[in-house]
């Protein structure tokens, strides 16, 4: 069967052949209308228009002159006595009943379908056959059903009460966790998400006290609370040993670690380079992820778009910890008066120290201080100040440059307080992008473009600042980056549970 979409013959010829092969045009009401031929005439026309004769002109011969008695036309005449005869030969054509070619038999009326153009008011798509239309309808229905199922799945996840998720929390000796809380900073420091997640999971509806029913096993070890360094930041030298000790204990006392080789066990690594447990990138990369944790799931703040040793483990990106109480006490971001154009307060070295070949912040913060320290549009301070969150609440743009690692707690503080984050950390990955649409609420400036920073901010302020602020001030955005004592719908721990639920669903589908 020929098709209008598959034949490469000239369109009028193909259309003629298509109509001859498909005479019952009541199935094609949008094509041509013509008087049906008799069965015998249709058969003879079909024989005369087979593909082997398509090169022959299908133009009908002129009607005979009335004064001649002989009304039959002689197709085979090619003698010199008839100079107007066509130059090509019709000998190969079968003889056709001459009654079809007489005016009295409406031959010309029936053959108008060869030259009658398609009505111009009929759209081109109407030339599709019924079969093709059925395939298009089937494809449309299949795609609609597919996207409907995805939408239902997403809606189910976003409204999940985690009834299908079960997490067992190991009851480790207090030396692994709660003893560290004797220092109050342990629960409030920027690395304190390891404490907050543990506390929230203990009260979560996803928690089970029966390990045989568990889908995941949470290992609560606080490795970021050893504040023994001179600069006041946590030391991490003990982290690997403490974690290994915990794994040795749970694998000796219970069968679940050995059963899965730790693949369903969850840890938190909330410091600079996550699962590598070191503050200096080159040292962290040289050490890599501890071998005993390489099959496990790590909740970590570190993430980059390029391949990196410290994220060569199944992981979930989480935000750094910012106390919910510290931002709830501030004014509503949408109504705050913002009299500071661009703000940064933090460590900036005037002459950056070379620490074994490494420069803090890749000298980005030093360049910010050098270029904008005396610029009236920028409020840039090197000294720490306990009330600096009030300054964030007064600012339009908040600079978030990298430190030793790409991420910074200023990013969360800026979002929570309604200040547009200006991210200066090449290749950083950010948490929960399905809820926090980072490109719509923040700016990204390359580390090498610090010199054009003022121009970029001025341009945004004059164009689409109000749109960015409207997106930023959505309460769901702030909520997604906050850890609470108990899991709340849409908060950071809730997003962690959603991620684990997704991993569980994929695991079950692959089994």
UniProtKB/TrEMBL annotation:
Keywords from the named record: Glycosyltransferase, Golgi apparatus, Membrane, Signal-anchor, Transferase, Transmembrane, Transmembrane helix
Answer yes or no on keyword Transmembrane.
yes
Task: Please list the GO biological process terms of this entry.
Answer: glucuronoxylan biosynthetic process
Is Glycosyltransferase among this UniProt entry's keywords?
yes
Q: Which GO terms describe its molecular function?
A: glycosyltransferase activity
Q: Which residues cross the membrane?
A: 135-154
Primary localization: Golgi
Record GO cellular component, one term: Golgi membrane
Q: Where is this region: Disordered?
A: 53-88
Composition bias of kind Basic residues appears in 64-75
Say which domain of life the source belongs to.
Eukaryota
Exostosin GT47 domain location:
164-459
Protein's membrane topology? Single-pass type II membrane protein
Subcellular compartments:
Golgi apparatus membrane
Q: Which first-to-last residue range defines the signal peptide?
A: none
Q: Which InterPro entries match?
A: Exostosin (IPR004263), Exostosin_GT47 (IPR040911)
Which PANTHER family did the record assign?
Answer: EXOSTOSIN HEPARAN SULFATE GLYCOSYLTRANSFERASE -RELATED, GLUCURONOXYLAN GLUCURONOSYLTRANSFERASE IRX7-RELATED
Q: Which family does it belong to?
A: Belongs to the glycosyltransferase 47 family.
User: Protein name, please?
Assistant: Glucuronoxylan glucuronosyltransferase IRX7
Q: Where does this protein come from, organism-wise?
A: Acorus gramineus (Dwarf sweet flag)
- Source taxonomy lineage? Eukaryota, Viridiplantae, Streptophyta, Embryophyta, Tracheophyta
């Amino acid at each position: 069967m020929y098709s209008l979409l598959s034949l490469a013959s000239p369109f009028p010829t193909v259309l003629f052949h298509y109509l001859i092969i498909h005479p019952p045009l009541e199935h094609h009401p949008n094509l041509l209308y013509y008087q049906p031929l008799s069965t015998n005439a249709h058969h003879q026309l079909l024989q005369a228009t087979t593909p082997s004769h398509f090169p022959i002109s299908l133009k009908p011969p002129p009607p005979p002159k009335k004064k001649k008695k002989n009304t039959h036309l002689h197709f085979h005449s090619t003698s010199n006595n008839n100079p107007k005869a066509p130059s090509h030969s019709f000998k190969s054509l079968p003889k056709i009943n001459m009654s079809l070619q007489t005016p009295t038999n409406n031959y010309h009326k029936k053959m108008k379908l060869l030259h009658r153009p398609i009505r111009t008011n009929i759209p081109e798509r109407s030339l599709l056959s019924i079969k093709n239309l059925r395939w298009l309808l089937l494809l449309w229905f299949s795609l609609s059903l597919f996207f409907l199922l995805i939408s239902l799945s997403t809606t189910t996840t976003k409204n999940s009460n985690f009834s299908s998720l079960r997490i067992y929390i190991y009851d480790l000796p207090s030396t692994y966790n709660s003893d560290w809380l004797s220092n109050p900073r342990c629960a409030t420091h920027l690395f304190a998400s390891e404490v907050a997640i543990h506390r929230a999971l203990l009260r979560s509806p996803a928690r089970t006290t029966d390990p045989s029913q568990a889908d995941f096993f949470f290992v609560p070890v606080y490795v970021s609370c050893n504040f023994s360094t001179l600069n006041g930041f946590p030391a991490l030298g003990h982290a690997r040993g403490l974690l290994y000790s915990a794994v040795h204990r749970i694998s000796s006392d219970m069968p679940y670690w050995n059963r899965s080789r730790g693949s369903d066990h969850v840890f938190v690594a909330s410091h600079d380079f996550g699962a590598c447990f070191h503050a200096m990138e080159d040292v962290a990369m040289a050490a890599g992820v501890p071998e005993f944790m390489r099959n496990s799931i790590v909740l970590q703040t570190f993430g980059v778009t390029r391949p990196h040793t410290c994220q060569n483990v199944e992981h979930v990106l989480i935000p750094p910890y910012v106390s919910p109480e510290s931002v709830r006490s501030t004014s509503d971001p949408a109504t705050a008066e913002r009299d500071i154009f661009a703000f940064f307060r933090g460590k900036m070295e005037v002459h950056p120290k070379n620490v074994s070949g490494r420069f803090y912040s890749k000298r980005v913060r030093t360049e910010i201080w050098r270029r904008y320290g005396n610029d009236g549009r920028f409020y840039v301070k090197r000294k720490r100040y306990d009330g600096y969150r009030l300054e964030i609440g007064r600012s339009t743009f908040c600079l978030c440059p990298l430190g030793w690692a790409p991420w910074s707690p200023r990013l969360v503080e800026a979002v929570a307080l309604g200040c547009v984050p200006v991210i200066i950390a090449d290749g950083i990955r950010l948490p929960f992008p399905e809820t926090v649409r980072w490109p719509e609420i923040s700016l990204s400036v390359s580390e090498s473009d610090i010199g054009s920073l003022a121009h970029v901010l001025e341009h945004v302020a004059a164009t689409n600042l109000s749109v960015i602020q409207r997106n930023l001030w959505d309460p769901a955005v702030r909520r997604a980056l906050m850890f609470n004592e108990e899991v709340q719908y849409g908060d950071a721990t809730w997003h962690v549970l959603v991620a684990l639920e997704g991993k569980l669903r994929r695991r079950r589908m692959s089994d």
